[in-house]
Write a structure and sequence with these properties.
heterodimer; A: 249 residues; alpha+beta; five-stranded antiparallel beta sheet; 7 helices; 10 strands; B: 158 residues; three-stranded antiparallel beta sheet
């Protein structure tokens, strides 16, 4: 295949304009466990699929939702080791920004920083791109909730709700169908929407999901397993009721 | 030179500072805030060269915060004080030293005790029951030597 000649070095374009290493990085992202982000009116919710840990493994050392600053939280899909590097650089940049301009970073600024960092690695000799897609959520200091997504290529966009990782397409289609400003005007509805979206592709059960809620002016809240289980039960009940209604028709 | 002083009691520390910024006979500002909180349990009082004080304190504060972001728990007062001392020492024999004297007060949640650190611009550091910087120290230290008791606030001491 012609691509075999053009996918060795990152800095080489293929004749039809592809950067194969970047596209392979996106494949690596598709192998990672699903992450979903929903922007509500009063909160931003990030949820991830928790991969089952081996019997002897300590569960708490697997972290896929990370705090970048008091008001910025990030979830990712893809190579965890790559993510660690990006997160460290982003955390330093958040503090550095505060030191120089006395203001906390805006979501757009830190997303742009991460995206620029990723892009640099698609245009350097001897380096490979970062194999992760990040969902960055939080509140700007004027109180506006925001959700951004970055890709291995270094592009970033703002989203109302999005998913990345394994089966991201299914989750995104679900969100496109069910997301609306009315469905996310309270915190509870936003959380439920995020859980419902994740449950499309994740095995049901509180211990398979990790959920974080970011509110304006408050520290990040990681939902505990009991609460997630409650929501999951509610969601399942609603699903059953809907299915029954359809049968009756 | 401006005066800052600190007294350590069993569960808390009192830090006091004047609010004057002056050069010899000219008082440039009389509402200066010389306290810099580093975290929920750490407070720093700084005096010395104007400008250096703010720059250095903000740098330390942001680094302490970065540690918390990276590691999910805060630096202990002892670790923060030693980090600050290290920053002072590194700057001492470099392009331009930070001309700041400071007192760092912290409550260690793990050890459950209050700690007061005295640091000067030459990067010397000591954990002390009471200390002061500036001309005020000449007056205050004698008084504290005579009357200091860690257990209670002596009545009539300002």
């Amino acid at each position: 295949m012609g691509s075999a000649k053009y996918d060795r070095a990152i800095t080489v374009f293929s004749p039809d304009g592809h950067l194969f290493q970047v596209e392979y990085a996106q494949e690596a992202v598709k192998k990672g466990s699903t992450a979903v982000g929903v922007r509500g009116k009063t909160c931003v919710v990030l949820g991830v699929e928790k991969k089952s840990v081996a019997k002897l493994q300590e569960e708490r050392t697997v972290r896929k939702i990370c705090l970048l600053d008091n008001h910025v939280v990030m979830a990712f899909a893809g190579l965890t080791a790559d993510a660690r590097i990006l997160i460290n650089r982003a955390r330093v940049e958040c503090q550095s920004h505060k030191l120089t301009v006395e203001d906390p970073v805006t979501l757009e600024y830190i997303t742009r920083y991460i995206a620029e960092l990723k892009q640099r690695y698609t245009q350097s000799n001897g380096r490979r791109p970062f194999g992760i897609s990040c969902l960055i959520g939080g509140f700007d200091f004027d109180g506006t909730p925001r959700l951004y997504q970055t890709e291995p290529s270094g592009t970033f966009h703002e989203w109302k709700a999005n998913a990345t990782g394994r089966s991201a397409k299914t989750v995104r289609e679900f969100l496109e169908k069910y997301y609306s400003p009315e469905e996310t005007d309270t915190e509870e509805k936003t959380v439920k929407l995020a859980i419902r979206a994740l449950l499309e592709v994740v095995q049901s059960g509180g211990k398979n999901l990790e959920l974080a809620i970011m509110r304006h002016g408050q520290p990040l809240q990681m939902m505990d397993v009991e609460r997630i289980d409650e929501y999951v039960k509610e969601v399942e009940k609603e699903k059953e009721e809907e299915a029954e209604k359809k049968k009756k028709k | 030179m401006e005066c800052i002083l600190g007294i350590r009691f069993n569960d808390f520390i009192l830090l006091a500072a004047d609010t004057i910024d002056s050069r010899s006979i000219v008082v440039m500002k009389h509402d200066v805030d010389k306290f810099f909180p580093l975290s929920k349990n750490l407070l720093m009082a700084v005096c010395g060269e104007s400008g250096d004080t703010t720059q250095f304190s903000e740098y330390i504060a942001k680094n302490v915060h970065l540690y918390k972001m990276k590691n999910d728990y805060e630096l202990s007062p002892r670790a923060s004080a030693n980090f600050t001392r290290r920053m002072l020492a590194d700057s001492l024999r470099s392009r331009e030293r930070y001309n700041v004297n400071l007192l760092m007060a912290g409550y260690d949640e793990v050890e459950k005790k209050a700690e007061l650190y005295y640091m000067d611009y030459l990067a010397s550091m000591m954990e002390l029951p009471y200390c002061a910087h500036g001309y005020g120290s000449y007056f205050v230290l004698g008084c504290l030597d005579a009357y200091y008791k860690p257990g209670k606030l002596p009545s009539g001491v300002v």
